[in-house]
Amino acid sequence: MSEQTPAPEQRGLMRRSALVDGIAALFLALLAGIWFAADALLLVFACVLFAILLFELSAILSRRFHINRKLSLAIVVGTLLLVIGLGGWAMAPQISEQANQLAKTIPTSIQRLQQMVEQHSLLKRLASELPQPKRLMQYLGQMVPNAGLFFGGVLGAIGNVAIILFVGIYFAVSPGVYRRGFIRLVPPRKRERAGEVIEEIGGTLARWLLGTSCSMLIAGIATSVGLSLLGVPLALILGIIAGLLDFIPYLGPIMAGVPAVLIALSVDPQLALYTMMLFGGIQLVQGYIVQPLIDSWAVEIAPALIIVMQLIFGTIFGFAGIALATPMTATLMVLVKMLYVEDILGDRPEEQGGAPPSG
């Protein structure tokens, strides 16, 4: 007795069920891969960001002086290495000395802050919430390895820098090879659109990186000069910290201001107040002048959205997720705008120049 053949409706339902189950399994596998390989993926994203920055700088140099792009890339890389090498060689002793003093001064400043707070009965509860100096140093020691994207500790930080440097240079030398390889993973009828999306993401990140680099330089110089004029110790290392943390909008300046205020407090409470005013003024300029210019030039990102995404990525990926939250958010915004709003919803921007769309 032969088995009964399923009806066409049943076969269609079975195929749809199998397709849904396969998509669900693929989605879960993708989430698991992202979860377990998060550090590596973040490191790759950092390499791509550095490659985009190198490519954009070399493209600007190539257009300005009409030279070969690979030659301009070699000039950009050589100049960056020369500046970093000479700057590190000239300031390494002072930076090392100030970094050691910073590690010794912060616990003492916290103790003094606790003593000042405990003198006021209403603030004793706040004093009880402050970490002990030894516990704080343990927290800092735990945070430094977690700040790494792939490896841990000091060697991990050096390894991250080396990987980002070399892989970023390789990406920047032949970006078309990797772009074409990625597009070939897309179905043929969607490859042209995939190329447009990649170009838009690359342009957005390039503009954001150039603007952010200028913002970091301004923040670092302004902080160092301002702290020096106020007479705050360790102004150089604190300025470097402020410049680096300016890469993280909104949260970065707060993180940079805490050690500066603590060190100023170890000298004089009034100096700590002036230091807070200095960081507040720099943040006002950055938040109301520099950052809006960057956003309007690159991509409009609401401040609340950036903070929310920093919390989400920080919870998932740790400190590296906080640091890379803004460029990842910019990438997601381009994907949502082009692939969902424009392609799925059909809400495309009007043709520029008033010309009617071709029929």
Task: Give a verbal description of the structure.
This protein has 359 residues and is mainly alpha-helical. The protein is 82% helix and 0% strand. The protein has 14 helices and no strands. α9 packs antiparallel against α10. The protein is globular and about 85 Å long. It starts with 7 loop residues before the first helix and ends in a 17-residue tail after the last helix. The C terminus is likely disordered.
How would you summarize this macromolecular structure in one to three sentences?
It is built from 14 helices and no strands. Helix 5 (133-147) runs parallel beside helix 6, helix 8 runs antiparallel to helix 11 (269-297) and helix 8 (191-230) runs antiparallel to helix 14.
Secondary-structure map with pairings?
Elements: H1 8-36, H2 38-65, H3 69-118, H4 124-129, H5 133-147, H6 153-173, H7 175-183, H8 191-230, H9 235-245, H10 251-267, H11 269-297, H12 303-317, H13 319-323, H14 325-342
Choose one word for the global shape: globular
- Could you estimate the helical fraction of the residues in percent? over 70%
Question: What percent strand?
Answer: under 5%
Instruction: Tell me the quaternary state.
Output: single chain
From the alpha carbons, calculate the radius of gyration and give it in angstroms.
26 Å
Q: Provide the residue-averaged pLDDT.
A: 78
Count of individual helical segments = 14
Distance between the termini: 60 Å
Number of strands: 0
Give unreliable regions as ranges: 140-151, 351-359
